[in-house]
Amino acid sequence: MRKIFQEILTLLRLNTGRTNLKVVILCLVAATLFWLFNSLNKNYTANVRYPITFLYDTDSYQAVEELPDEVLLNMTGVGWNLLRKSMRVRTEPLLIRLESPDNTSRIPGSSLPSAVTDQVTDLQLNYVLTDTLYLNIDRRVTRYLKVWIDIDSLNLADDFVVTGPMTLKPDSVRLTGPMDMIAAIGDTIFLQVDENDIDENFEDELEVVLPNSEMIIRNPPSVSVMIPIERLEVLDLELPVNTRNFPQNYTLSDSTKVTRVWVRESMANQVVASELSLLADYTSFDISDSTVVPVADVVPSYVERIALDTTGIKVIIR
Fold this sequence. Notes:
Largest sheet: 6 strands, mixed
Helix content: 10-25%
Shape: rod-shaped
Radius of gyration: 42 Å
Structural class: alpha+beta
Order of helices and strands: HHEEEHEEHEEEEEEHEEEEEEEEEEEE
Distance between the termini: 131 Å
Mean pLDDT: 87
Strand content: 35-45%
Number of strands: 23
Number of domains: 4
């Protein structure tokens, strides 16, 4: 080999023409290839990153985190074989069988030599450099969970309210995925409404959003939702004030009080003031100004909201 290079250098000194330069380059390439082929036929020792594949029942178990895909081995063998393994050319992965995947969180490197020796026949294993392979595999389960609207995410325009039962179709979804992830969700999946200032009946398809959703199969992935919404009308009503626990001969200076109430727009024409009432309880008598502040007493279901005046009514003696 040394003699070949010396002859090439002699050619370079004798003639530097373009033709001879091409010849020299070809000679260098040929010499390099000759040296490479000759060298790769010898035995070497090297560290090899060998591909691995885990075998387990993927219908019953699911990897929660990405599994290791290689193990570092110190091996001895013909240079060609070492090069091929290092470059993973026509290299079958090392197969590691898992009998109880959900109970196997780690595999020590010291347990791998027998599997390597059985499956890799063209190289000699010296030792395993990888200390431990860490696994996170859980049992795959299927559960049906109820779906409902996250009320806190419902952003209505001012003076609008939900006026009836919400409809969800379907009202449950089927989830398939790692057991611990699905158990952490609970019994109900709450759907988020992203729209703001809603001022009419809400109808839309809402996606079933889950933590770690890439690990869980949802069926269906979205739910059809209908929420009845209506405007409130504001009424100022003169309501009667009932009394309780008043001493004999004590009464109120006024037997009625103007109060603001909010009712559904569709019910506004049906409101009767006599169906509502306030209550003044003498036990809340304020001695400093001789007043009692009334509270709501009788409020029909069609009243959505009532604003109570904090101004008290004078208590007088007959």
